[in-house]
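Researcher: Last one for today. Full complex below.
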Amino acid sequence: MITIDEAYVDSAAPNADAGKNGRGLVLKKKLTKLNISSDGKLLFGECQGSGKVPYQCSADFAREDQPTYRCTCPSRQFPCKHCLGLMYAFAQKKPFSTAEVPADLQAKREKLLDRVEKKKEESAKPKQVNLAALSKKVKTQLDGINTLETLTHDLVRIGIGNMNAKLANQMEQQAKRLGDVYLPGARAALYGYTQLFSDDEGKFAASANANKSERIYTEALDQLGRLNAIIKQGRAYLTKQLEDPNLAVPTDSAIAAWLGHAWQLSELKAAGLVEPDAELVQLAFNSHFDPARQEYIDTGIWITLGNGKIRVTQTLRPIKALKYIKSEDSFFAVAQIKELCVYPGSVNPRIRWDGMTQRPLEAKDFQTVRTKGSSDFAATVKEVKNALKAPLADRMPIFALNFKTLGKVGDEYVIEDAKGQRLVLTDVGMAEEPASCGMLPLLPKSTFANQTMIARFRHDLDTRQLRVKPLSIVTDSTVIRLTL
Amino acid sequence: MSIAVLSQVYTEARRLMIAGSVVARGDFRLKKLLPPLEQAGKQAPVFAKVAETAKAVIEGPEDSSAASLLELTSLVTAVLYTQGETGIEGKLQPVETTNLGGAIVQTNARILKPLLEALSSTGSGRLELVKDAHERGHFRDIRLIKPALAALDDPYPEIAELIATKVLPLYGKAILPELRAKYDPKGTKGHPRRLRLMHAIDPSGTRELVKDALENGSKEVKVAAISCLGSDASDLPFLVEQASAKAQDVRAAAYQALTAIDHPDATGVLQKALAGKDFAHAANAIESSKSSKLVDLLVEDIRSSIEGLAKLKDKKQIGQQISRLETLIASFPKGNFPHADKLLLDLFSRREEIVKIKGDTFSGLDIIESVIQQLANGSEASRKAIVAQHAEVPADQLEHVFDAARLVLTPAKLYETFSQYLTAKVDEKKKAKDPAWAKREAIFDAIESGSHFYFWLDDDDSRFDDEDRPKPPPYDPRWLDLAIKLQRLELVQALARPDHKEALAFVFSYFQKELKTSKSPDGLRNELYAMFRFHHPERANAFFSVLNMKGKKTPYFHYWFVRLVPRLPKDTLPKLEEVIATLPDSESRLWLDAVHELRSKE
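Model: Here's the assembly. Have a good evening.
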């Protein structure tokens, strides 16, 4: 039996407008047929559109954690407003009559089940790979690495101080071909450098602001270091792949993603990068616009209740496709996931999943999160430093820290663990999430002792200081989110 | 481990990366670091590796200089990443917190993001969003503090003022550092607001900033700074000086500040200002000060000016003086000021003499009207006094007196005193020319406007928010009987009580009568609202019959009609949906939220 309410449909909608349009269809009685299958797992009906023939829409809950939405409308939003309308009608307890599932829909359902079965079987057996084609691709990528090397060395020869918007623009034009040789990630890394010389909107204005350059030298240096690492590690990785008789993608480091490999869930599963029956709690969520990439990036920071690992989800929504990609939202329940896929990577790798169910957060969950935090700052700092020295490491890793006291030394906010080890809090250099230190004096007094802070570490190359930015504070009854 | 050397290598490598690797070969500064590096390398292999890479940069071939320099930078950076300093020396002090009270609110991103957008962009429709968020308590989510602080500079002043006066004071002292950091005494727009806000949150701590603003601030900031003065007697000489400044804004702010200082010099300046061209600013300052000593200044001035009026001959001069007197009379603050009450009552008793004074555009009648309004809105004693003399009040001021009477008389006494105006014999043809007719209409207006349907629609009691205007007790039941007898629908509607059988029958018959004759739904608005206000059992049917008579071209019809939807009985939902489904798309969108509200009703 399907148990959905209006809030469920709201959250299934790709954006608030789609939800509103769906409600509108119910109100306008555009849904001319409302049916439910005899097994109670499929809602289907007809919805009058602007044409003569109504759209056939359906919401299939055969897989409860991963419903399938089908509609004959040409919309590229999933679920479209017709499917949402159908579900709103059900949630509003409109009369649904039990009917036989139309043959074509039944065929699709069966096909889907077959596909799922097949997928399962396929994932069990080794994947067929066109080795010749793959080998050609890898060789092309290796050529691309050489191009990247030439471009990078040119940049070093020119010197950061002699870069300007015009040169950066020219370099970007040349770097475009890296995308053609299957290295979009490497190209993005190069853009990461050239974009330092653009204006705030990601454009290369003729009058690039010269005074900006002084501030970006250190960042530019770091980016060039990364490019160097991508070249070296990328070359080693591709050569290793070429030497492997099956040309398999190595899964022991994040370099594949740096080059631009788009991991598929099936690949991750095949590589064993899966955790079964995971329960996740969201610790922080932020959505920001990246002008260089012209896209919104929704980032969720999650902890797995079982093993206490902190990992991230990322949804990229390019402006051009904003309508078609669901915007993510803060999540205040426990996500229950059958198969949690984890990307290769070190501290906070990316995670993804196919389907999920949810349950309310309880006091014991907060307790679990708190027990997963580190009470020994010295050990955590060591771990962070060890991770940071790798040139391709995530520069701002996230950890859960159990502090004894949160206080002030002079103007600085400081957390201290039971052994008296201290970490200084800062917002400097972590602009993707809005500043959070300024909110601390507004928190209740009880938050300043014996709580768990979810914090991002950052090493400032100019001042040589390793500091943390508070993202959230987990108490025994809530997660106080400080960023957005 | 000699980290200092490593830092030096990093600095040199950074310099070369900035200058370009073409100049790296043979670099003597880097060369100088080789011996200490090699020395350190004997103990720690990583230094030997750094030395070797640095050597490659200095001595290697030209064409591999870029690769070598990159290698060196990467290596040194990687080592430095392991050397980050943590911790801080010094005593750990507790964080001073500002208790916001209540639980911490955590709103989800889909709600907060549009609000952030509204606070940080321009365009229409934002004020409502911000107001609504403030009312719903969304600003208790501390993540909105920064955007709210930035909104002090919003180009739309109403948003910036709302943020400065209602939203930001919620956060108290916690926002002071941020306000101070952004504050620019030379700035305009948001900066005067910042100064005022800082002063409101922490007057003594802001004292120095205020003083500095007086010296160096822009004109706007200076005005704001002056308005923050007055708490200290030492401000007096400066304020006296500013009271004769060239700029009007500065003088007005100085008068405001001077009202807070109890000193003959301050009083002298205000007295002088009352007599001169700044009389309105001075009176305004006295009104907001609520100081009885200063109110006495007003009393004195008005009394002597009235006496002087008789001596004036020039009509123009008389007109100007009357206009000035009106302003001064209207500036008596709300509250208990016996001298002011005495003066007003005295002027009222001399009304026959005063109305005879004629100026070019104003006359003595204008003074008396101001006097009546002040008495009706004044202290309890003054209200009682003017209510007692209601029979003497001209028709166009009677409404004010009736409103005052609602507050000082019992409901029964109110009915007994004022219902006579509704039952009086009037000449319907002469209309306003007949004083009895005009007085009857004044009472009708007073009752009808006080409980107009738009207050009822919005459940809006905000007109009673002001403590000077308390909420009056309900009307005596006899008013409704009288309204039905008079067959006056608006009056019946304003006095609505659901359990009144005659009234129910009356509104229903009225509605049916109008339904037969009215050509468009708009003509039935009052009738339909009356049905809803009486919670009439037939109201849903009435609603649908109006909906059915809707023609094709009724563009403005929805805006009042749709608002009744949430007040329908919930069991009408299916029928409502039936009708809406037949509406064109452009119209049915307007119904969406209203129907959703009805559906979500408990």
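The longest helix of chain B spans residues 292-309. Chain B touches chain A through 72 residues (CB under 8 Å).
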